[in-house]
Every structure is written in C-alpha cells, then in structure tokens.
Amino acid sequence: MKTIWMVSLLVFSALGCQQRKDIVKEMYPEEQKQIEKVVHDIFDAAKKKEMDRLEAFHLVGPKFTKFDDWEPLNKQDAETARKAEREGFSAISDFKGDIQDFKADLFGDVAIATFVLDYSMKAGTDTVKAKARSTLVFVNDGGTWKITHEHFSPFKSNP
User: Given a cut of 70, is residue 159 above it in pLDDT?
Assistant: First the structure.
C-alpha cells in the first residue's frame, strides 16, 4: 500500500512539475508573425474590396462585437458589422490603409493586435485621410485566427 501511495505521489508531482507555458510572459514569436500577416491580409482584402475574403477573417456568431467611428456608432454584432462594412466599402473607392506601430500579444488561443491605422479613401469627390487607434481581438478557431472583436477610434487631430 505504501508503494502505491509513493508511486501515485511521484506521478502527480511529475505532472505538476511539467513545463507549462506562461501565457502572460511567453511571447509566441511565430504566432505573432501569423497575426501580423493576417492583419495585413485583412487590409489587402479591404483595399481590393474582396468582401467575401474580408468576411472570412471574422468569427461570425454571437461572440463577435465591433466598435468603430462609422455608423452605426453603437456596439455592433456580427451581422450588423458585416452589413455596415459592405455598405461602407461600396460607397468608397481607392481605400489605402497603412499599419503603423503594430503589436500582437498572445494569450494561448487568444491574440490582441494593436496598431495605428493611417488610412485614406475617396467618398464621392472627397478624399478622406485619417488615423485611428485600432484593436483586433483574435481567437484561434481550429488553426485559423479569426477576429472576434474590433475597435477603431479616430484620433482627435483628424481633419
């Protein structure tokens, strides 16, 4: 009986001492590169107005939310955000987005990407140029990083 107890104690101790990743301190450089590539691909799809491709980067469902500086200004669910994005991109041309000061932090299967989006577009005959603080929250959905939350806040210094 003593032997079984000691073997059990050793097994549980060994399991408890296994190297565990520290999701707060671990940097995950390969996954950071993946997230940065996904963000660049998102804006490439937006520039090309490839709406189906753009929508595929989103986690469509009840856990998706969005805030931005375009209408509607309230918190958007997946369907509202999809509809607003399609309507918004259909009304503009020559969209360009430059991603600056990019950072991706990973916490296991969740990643937070923050960056400044320096963008321009044409709306009718007007050219709009602005910058926005940008946050995209991703979840790893079966090996694919999907946006589950996005938030864009314009700088007060925008024209």
Answer: yes
Q: At 59, is the secondary structure helix, strand, or coil?
A: coil
Closest CA to 147 of 159, 139, 155: 139
pTM, 2 dp: 0.84
**Max Cα-Cα span within the chain:** 85
* Segments in 48-146 forming alpha helices (H): 51-56, 78-90
Q: Which two tokens stand for residue 63?
A: 């856990």
Q: Which residue has the tokens 């050793």?
A: 10
Q: In which band, very low, low, confident or very high, does the pLDDT at 7 lie, cut at 50, 70 and 90?
A: very low
Burial grade of 151 (CB within 10 A; 0-12, 13-18, 19 or more):
middle
Q: Which tokens go with 70?
A: 């375009």
pLDDT band at 20 (very low <50, low <70, confident <90, very high): low
Sign of CA dihedral 102, 48, 50, 89: positive
Distant-in-sequence, close-in-space partners of 122: CB < 8 Å, separation ≥ 6:
92, 93, 94, 128
3-class SS of residue 133 = strand
